[in-house]
Amino acid sequence: MNEQTATSISHARRSSAATARTLLILGASGDLTGRLLLPGFAGLLGSGKVRPVRLAGAGSSGYGEEKWQERVRSVFADAEQKATTEGREVLEQVRASTSFHEVDVTAPGQLRSLIDSLEGPVAVYFALPPAVSEKACRLLVETGVPEGTRLVLEKPFGSSAQSARDLNAILAQLVPERDVFRVDHFLGKGTVFNILGLRFANRLLEPVWSNLHIEKVEIFFDEDLALENRAGYYDNAGALRDMIQSHLLQVMALLALNAPASLGERNLRDHIGSLLRAARVKPGYAETTRRARYTAGEINGKAIPSYTDEPGVDPAKNTETLAELEIEINNMRWAGVPFILRSGKALGRRRKEAMITFKPVPHLPTGFHGVDEPTRLRIGFSPETLQLEIDVNGPGDIFTLDRAVLATEMNTSNLLPYGEVLDGVLAGDPLLSVRGDIAEDCWRIVEPVLHAWEAGEVPLEEYPAGSLGPSSWPTSCDGGQLGAPVSSTPLKPTV
Ligand code: NDP
């Protein structure tokens, strides 16, 4: 796609909705707001690409105007260091006009009155505990919201297909679907457009992108961070809900969908939805799913306690810190190809990538020696990288097959993940947001697994913190490092 077309699509996406005039953050004193939301917002403003908007913080306790002003001032001061000249002016304008509002969003009428008092359209960011967000939305149905209001909901969005449906039904009474933003902050523009660009702008890949040529697709999101004091959230979620349900299924959809006609949100999200509707976890969950929990260990020289000894963890909940699912996609293109999705914490190596393994060639000419390894394409996430692993001849004996790795870095957005989220919210472009039907479908896919795990059908295994995961899992092998050769298949004897 040439630059002009891309610019006009991007412009069309944005011009269909009015830019929000106020960003209202509910949960001004919260962790998300201080650690991720405000820095992302400040980076967006500092880029100079957006016009100033009003920033309003709100909370139920006595957090107060002074603390809010100080919070904004300190985050914006950091962002100024990297800001453009225009960006610095925007930061200053937004900082100077920010305000704090005391509100109990669970008290009838209070949130609506607050929205009315702000310059519209207002983007309402629910940086609140999920149950509080849900209650606030329910109450808003009684009063409605002014036209043009945008609602931004954090993960987890519901806790089951039914609860996601219920929440969607409430939201649908408030605003049109394109004004609802369900945040997946890991799904950055870099990830989305790099995958789509790679797949659909290269004649080389698309013809082999199917069950005719691909053996399996693995998507990893292994973190070397442990619980980081987030037991209150994580112990009720676990790796499957935290990452696979909410994020890795989206990445899988991008890797597997058919080519959309354009990059507009309708086209793209229709294709994501259609792909996910064809997906399910293969029944026989003891074979197609795995779960494990870390025990005491060491990561980068730091001692990590056993998960069950972390403050705030209830061992009886049997929360998994590492999860793996095998998904099947029942359509012409993908029937028979396993998509393996794995995510976990406290692992010895940070590994965020999609690894596409191709089938062996149908016939290798007689006379080659060495090891015939499968062709692999690896797409790394944050940092965004691309790596093709192929067989070549030599060195030395030209009849011997050896491995070559072609690697490059891919470009990415200059914004922090929450800067990208807020860019879409303010512009009224829901491209990166999870559409309601898709959120429900992601729950539909994982729900049978959650039930099987609750029923104890799949053992909860263990792995020491700092290891690669349970050693019996094929995905815990050492060969997965980006930049290094991976597992080998001995060459069949050639006569
Ligand atoms: P916190 O517990 O740190 O903050 C919750 C906020 O909600 C507080 O500011 C609190 O304000 C406010 N609040 C609670 N009840 C009310 C009420 N009745 N009326 C108005 N405000 C209220 O939570 P987090 O910031 O960690 O998480 C917020 C959301 O973001 C959650 O949905 C979480 O799942 C999600 N999330 C968080 C991430 C993180 O890293 N923290 C990452 C990804 C998602 P006050 O004390 O003034 O009542």
Automatic annotation (TrEMBL):
Pfam families from the entry? Answer: G6PD_C, G6PD_N
Keyword DNA-binding tagged: no
Q: What is the enzyme's class at the highest EC level?
A: oxidoreductase
GO BP field:
glucose metabolic process; pentose-phosphate shunt, oxidative branch
The Glucose-6-phosphate dehydrogenase NAD-binding domain, residue ranges: 25-194
Q: This protein is called what?
A: Glucose-6-phosphate 1-dehydrogenase
Family indicated by similarity: Belongs to the glucose-6-phosphate dehydrogenase family.
What's the source species for this entry?
Answer: Falsarthrobacter nasiphocae
